[in-house]
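Deliverable D5.2: sample structural annotation.
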Amino acid sequence: MRKIILASALIISSLSIFAQEGIPTSSDKDSQTKVFFEKPKPEWKEKLRYGGTFWLGFFGAFYIDASPIVGYELNDKGTIAGIGANFIFQGTFNRNSSTNTNNTIFGPKVFVRQQVFKRFFAHAEYEFIRADAYQFYSYIDNPTNPSAAFKKVWGSSPLIGAGFYQGGDGRRGSFISLMYNLGYPNRGFISPQSLLGSETPITLRYGFLF
């Protein structure tokens, strides 16, 4: 009799434990299946960085500057290296004339960026630009051939600078930076974004990197 009572007690306790644990539903199985079959993102994709700078202006003329960049995080110290391109369009229109003047500037570039302290970073790049001859520091006015100023030529500019991110973990997000043209005053492209015009080789930039 005691054996029967003990066996009954064991069966009842087992049923109560099973009831407390609950019976898995179809939604639970689906969620478990999704987690189980989810593919991890490759490590090299986690280290890719996308972004660039963008500038739009209407100061006497229509101006747009789009400079996309793609970088790769080389180490855990915040070193990013990559490539990019510059696309600049300048357009002017005179209401008293039926003509308008458009100028397109473009070229590739390479860069490296290093996190220095928290959200601050150092940045260096080397850009190649195709633009009108007069838009380079190396241009010399030729009074006997004024049209030479508007001849399309290739030039290069080494730049260094620093900036800081406005958000993120100090290695990505929107940023503001100041760049200095090391070619000044003998070579290099005169950026329309230069502070105080062609009199200074310092350029202000707004952009993002994620």
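Annotation notes: The mean pLDDT is 83. The beta strands are 48-57, 62-73, 79-93, 100-117, 120-132, 152-165, 173-181, 202-209.
The annotation will be released with the project's public dataset once the embargo ends.
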